[in-house]
Structures are given as C-alpha cells and as structure tokens.
Amino acid sequence: MTRNPTLTLLAAAVFALAGCASTAPRTAPVAVAAAGVAADDNLNAVLWVQTAQEYRALTTQTWRAAEAQLDAALADPQWTALLPGEGAELQTPAQKPAVIVDIDETMLDNSAYQARLVVDGASYGSASWASWVKERRATPVPGALAFAKAAADKGVTIVYISNRTHDMAADTIANLRAYGFPVEEANYYGLGVEVPGCTPHGSEKGCRRIAAASRYRVLLQVGDQITDMAQLTSNSPAERDALFNRYNAWFGQRWFVLPGPTYGGYEPAAFGNDWSLPADVRRARKQQALELAR
C-alpha cells in the first residue's frame, strides 16, 4: 500500500501530541509527591521487611532450619548453645531443654512502628517505643509461631530474653499470647532483670543467659543480632568480626540469625557507637564505612 507523506507526518504529530498529553498527568503527581518526601536512611529497609517476599522466605527458612536441628540437639546430652562464662558451665543432661529467643524482629515484627518513624520523619525514642509496646500490635515474624509450637510439642521450653524493659512484661506477654506463642512470665527476661552475682555490661544479655542456664539446658539460640547469642564489650567492627569468625560453625547449628535490617549493632559500630553525633555526621561515617571494592 502506498503511504501519503503528508498524512504520515500529520499522524506522527498527532501521536506525539497525544503522548505528551497522556504522559504529563501521570508524571506530575509523582514529581509532586517526591518533592514532599524527605530522604530517610531506613526507608528501603522497612519497605523490604514489609513487602519483600524474600524477607518472608528468609525468616521462614531460618525457623524451619532451627526446627530441623531440635531433634539432634535433644538427642545429645552434652549439647548446649551457650558459651563458657555465659552459662555453658551450668548445663547438665538432667536439665529440661529450652531454646533462648530474642523477641523484637525475631518472634514479633515491629516494622509498623518503624514505618511510622519513616513517614513522620522521626527517630526512635523511648517514649514512642513504650507507647507502641502498650498497643500490643506487633505481629509474628513469618515462621516464628510454627517453630514455637513445634518446640513446645517436643517438650522444649521457649525462653524469651529481650531488651524490652522488664516492666514491659505484661504487654509483651499479652501480645505474644494473642497469637498463640507459648510463654510463661517466669521465662521472660527483660532488660533490668537482676541476676545475683552477675554485673551486666550495658544492655548485653550475658547475665540473663546465665539465669536461664541455671534452669534449662539451652539447645539453640535465635535472634536478629549476634549479641542475642554472645556478649560483646566494645561493639567495634573488629570485635564483631572476631566473634563471627570464632564461632562460624555454630551458625545454622546452635545459633540461628534472622534478617534485621531496620536497626542493630552493625549501624552504631560504623560511627563508634556515638549516638550524640549529629545525624549528618553519623550518616557520613556510615558512608565512609562502605567498601567500594575488595
């Protein structure tokens, strides 16, 4: 078929105008919205936790792997997931078996609280966190509830060692029980619990692990930070690396770590654990900690 050059040029112009007309309304709202949204270091991390199938896959497979390890741990009377000085010396075959778990980002997902901070342009604060805990609206981390129920069916007690303060016990236990987690008040060790003969190092959990070890043979430890398994003193990158390297074989065997990108010791380790630094200085230090190539 022969094309008319004039008609062809006219049609091209019409299509071009139509494209401009249809494109402008779609892009304008995006530009306006983007102009009103401040940058936030935690946006992608919170978005990933709340929407990524990969996050759910990782937590689910971690909890399934931990459940699969329970039988082997139960069968070995000498098995313990505790280190010397943190309760290993107290372990005996006669003790009832237990698993030590963290709560936040391990059993309960608090990403809704983190999302509020992102949307409001706010930072973590003890008052806003306490209000969130009182709401009792944290939801189970994918895979956590199935593990807890499977462990209970095997006669394994879940011991909760959390850096929620001990006066948050009632709200925390109610939140857990609302979803069917097996939990007893005596097995909740919040921040501030005193352990006779043991002086805690800041918010580290070593003393509370010792308290749990006096009652139970600890088969596994599960958390979203390596300090949920062992104590650090300086939280420096070098000390964190040394702990990981020394006990590398324990991960996936006695220790199980869940993804927790929204906060954690890794972040302050990059700026010397000095939260008094201005936000832009902390951000600059974090950027300086990045490796552009190995």
UniProtKB/TrEMBL annotation:
InterPro entries membership: Acid_phosphat_B-like, HAD-like_sf, HAD_sf, Lipo_e_P4
Lineage top rank: taxon: Bacteria
Keywords: Signal
This protein's GO CC annotations: cell outer membrane
Cleavable signal peptide: 1-23
Keyword Cytoplasm: no
PANTHER family according to UniProt: ACID PHOSPHATASE-LIKE PROTEIN (PTHR31284)
Protein name: Acid phosphatase
Organism of origin: Stenotrophomonas koreensis
